[in-house]
Write a structure and sequence with these properties.
Shape: globular
Structural class: alpha+beta
Order of helices and strands: EHEEEEEHHEEEHEHHHHEEHHH
Strand order of the largest sheet: 3-2-6-7-8-9-1-10
Radius of gyration: 22 Å
Bound molecules: iron/sulfur cluster
Helix content: 25-40%
Number of helices: 11
Amino acid sequence: MNTEIFVTDKAGLATFYEAIIAKHETYAPVEKFGKYEFKKVSALSGCDPDAPIATTMSAKPLFFPRSAKIMKYTADASGTKVSETDEDPLSAQRVILGMKHCDARSLQVLDKVYNWDFIDTDYQKRRRNTVIISARCDKADTHCFCTSLDYNVERLDAMDVLIVNGADGKVYIEPRTEKGKSFLEGDLTHHMTHVRDNEEAAKAMKKQYDAFAGSFRLNMDYKTVNEGLSKIFDSPQFENVSDNCVGCNTCAFVCPTCHCFKISDEKVKDTGVRYKSYDSCNNGYFTLMAGGHNPRPVKYRRWRQRALHKFVYYKERFGENLCVGCGKCTRACPVNISIFEVVSTLPHINNIQ
Ligand code: SF4
Ligand code: SF4
């Protein structure tokens, strides 16, 4: 054991949050009409870093914006002139409060693709300049299944600073990365007790984790899912599971790991802007080629792509699932399609195992 931990209580945690907001550019969950979204905040009273699990949107838009201007241009009789867009507002040094484990973990999954064949320097800069502070959930909700996936939820290092509401009523704050360690140095933690390799703290944090891990309704063996799905590409069952899908793409837009995008130009008279915006493999036109051919002209093929990309192709290429088990897609789907149900039951339906 080689851990250092700051111990406080609920009031001390609020003081910690207030000091961060006063000192740093800070984003946190903000509630509007019962839905939560990550926004820039200027006071603790205007946000809820301990928001419930079902934040409607993940923090993905702070790293991969829904629709970003990537270029401006003028095009007239004298030719075309291209200019850079304004400075990226998401690349400043900043702190994000209130990200759940699944949200924080999704960034580690996305890092793989954003640092692969093309290095996305905007994404990298946003990642580098962000300190993630995350309170471990106390209880899973109906659609959560993060503990079923391929990472150690208890020892997750996807956040820089972990907060745990200990089973003994104390609040434990632990740096999980070097970035988190230097962030906690200084006056942010002056009002807390600093302990190192403390058994009592470790026990209280473990007890909280065990209660959390025991609260899941959904559990699956992801290795069985990976293997089973890899064998059923031609299964007619994909038609059944996607039958009700209305192709609204909500599942992709709220998913913290989906990263499909489209490039579009919007031009008025001689002036235009090029946008990079969210798209989804569930869109009928997503794979439509210039010559008119579409390899996924029907929705069961698009749904199959969604399931297999998340649990077969990404896993084969990058060694991890393109899903963190947050359940956001299922909560938001207007026709109640559950990705957990699809990927965990399809291999069984086909008697593959
Ligand atoms: S597919 Fe669904 S459960 Fe998995 S990460 Fe995306 S939104 Fe969360
Ligand atoms: S949210 Fe539901 S209905 Fe909409 S595209 Fe996704 S699975 Fe289909």
